[in-house]
Amino acid sequence: MSPRSSVAETRRTRQRIVDRSLVVASLYGLDGLTIGRLATDLGMSKAGVLGHFGTKESLQLAVVDAAAELFTRKVLNQVADDVPPGLPRLQAWCDAWVSYLARDVLPGGCLLTAAAAEFDGRSGPVRDAIAGMNDLWQRDLRLQIRHAITAGELQPDTDADQLVYEMAGIMLALNHFLQLQRDRSAPARARRALHRLWEGVKVPVRNGD
Fold first, then answer.
1. Helix-strand-coil split of the chain, %, nearest 5
2. Which of 6, 53, 97, 186 is placed for a possible disulfide with 58 were both Cys, Cβ 3.0 to 4.6 Å?
3. What is the distance between the alpha carbons of residues 152 and 34, in angstroms, rounded to a whole number?
């Protein structure tokens, strides 16, 4: 085997491990991501799995990165580039967010949401990585809120932090009702909650506009 083929095969194997780890972690949590389970699932030795990452923590960090990439593909990248910034893009992102949770892209639901609850009271690199992903997403949401305020779509005194807080609360409730309650009406309820949220901060349309 040539060195180039060897490198390509190593990358493919590593990706197989990460892909399977996403599924396992969505069901059993990042702590439930055991080398033995992965080795059995993938038909590999424990040493073969561990050799690609070195430590369980490195594997967990790779899975967090993969979950963030999946979220980006299924939520942010689902919104066309020609959707205007501000309220239209914010609403489109939230609609894609609801759809992402409702479609069970991963069998255990949104991994980042579950991992946030799993690691929120801890310290260390995995918790920091999850918090960092969350901070970046909230930053993007606040940016669209500020665009909407500047464009006159949202009221000038709109509290961006409060709005992001309430949006996140709706999505956490959606994930809870979908995963724990098995309530398939939850996405429709989430969309109604978001609609009421927008209506409470939108600039009223004047007669004749």
1. 70, 0, 30
2. 53
3. 51
Q: Show the CA angle centred on residue 173, arms to residues 131 and 19, nearest 5°.
A: 55
How long, in residues, is the chain?
Answer: 209
Closest CA relative to residue 77, chosen from 63, 96, 60, 59: 96
Q: Which residue bears the tokens 């098995």?
A: 182
pLDDT in tens, 177-195: 999 999 999 999 999 999 9
One-letter amino acid at 116 equals: A
What residues contact 115, with CB distance under 8 A and at least 6 apart? 25, 29, 30, 64, 67, 126, 130
Q: 115 with 64: CB under 8 angstroms?
A: yes
Please indicate, yes or no, whether the overall pTM of this predicted structure exceeds 0.70: yes
Residue with tokens 């709109």: 158
Record the tokens describing residue 161, joined without a space. Answer: 């932090």
Task: Report how far residue 149's alpha carbon sits from residue 156's, in angstroms, rounded to the nearest whole number.
Answer: 6
- Residue indicated by tokens 């809120």: 145
Q: What would the mean pLDDT of 71-81 be, rounded to a whole number? A: 92
Coil, strand, or helix at residue 125?
helix
| CA atoms of 193 and 134, how far apart (whole Å) | 21
